[in-house]
Amino acid sequence: MLGGGVPAGGAGVAVILLRHTRPAVAEGVCYGRTDLDLGPCFAAEAARLADALPPVTQVVTSPLSRCHRLAQAIATARALPLRIDPRLIEMDFGRWEGVAWDAIPRAEIDAWAADLLHARPHGGETVAEMATRAAAALADLARGPSPVLAVTHAGILKAVHATRDGPEAWHRPFPFASWQVIDGP
Predict the structure, then answer these.
(1) Domain of residue 22, residue span
(2) CATH code for position 151
(3) Which residue did the predictor score with more confidence, 88 or 8?
């Protein structure tokens, strides 16, 4: 569930996945692994999230600064340990990084759409590769002290949902600064 709800079914919360705040990048630009500056509302959003998120035992983050700086702000505000997990990084879009989506050759977009999980027309990482590492990270986080907050990216959130809910989750939006509660075992 998005936002600040509680998990369904009464199960314990193992992981809370939090998408980073809005970065300083133009709308419509592909920026997976590109390390971007923070948007102008970062300080206010970080303070709001530090207050609004459910209690957690630790904070784990993607190494990209748009996640790491948010994770650091939350960990500091709550006096929690923080660690980096490179498996939480966004997908590598290869030569598409920093390019407007509408400037990417249509044939490349069509090839990717025809085989979303395995195509690599951009030369970067496949969706399947990202999903595999996201699943491994989530499994490890769920086995540790819980609940844990994982500050990450939309691609990771979509990968987790696609594994749990099916392929339609690849098209689900995950707003900036929203979180997803993942029930424990």
Answers:
(1) 13-178
(2) 3.40.50.1240
(3) 88
> What is the pTM for the complete model shown?
0.90
Structure tokens at 108: 């490349």
The answer to whether position 42 is within a domain reads yes
Determine the Cα angle at 117 with ends 105 and 182, to 5°: 120
Q: Which residues make Cβ contacts (< 8 Å) with residue 115, sequence separation at least 6?
A: none
Reading phi first (left if > 0) and then psi (alpha if -120 to 50, else beta), residue 176 is in: beta
The DSSP symbol for 23 reads B
Residue 20 has pLDDT above 80, yes or no: yes
Question: What is the pLDDT at residue 146?
Answer: 87
Token output for 173: 């939006």
Distance from C-alpha of 85 to C-alpha of 14, rounded to nearest angstrom: 16
Cα distances from 163 to residues 119, 131, 169, in angstroms, run: 18, 8, 9
Cα distances (angstroms) measured from residue 13 to each of 3, 50, 54, 181: 14, 18, 10, 7
In tens, the pLDDT along 34-75 reads: 999 999 999 999 999 999 999 999 999 999 999 999 999 999
CB atoms within 10 A of CB 42: 20
Sign of CA dihedral 175, 178, 181, 182: positive
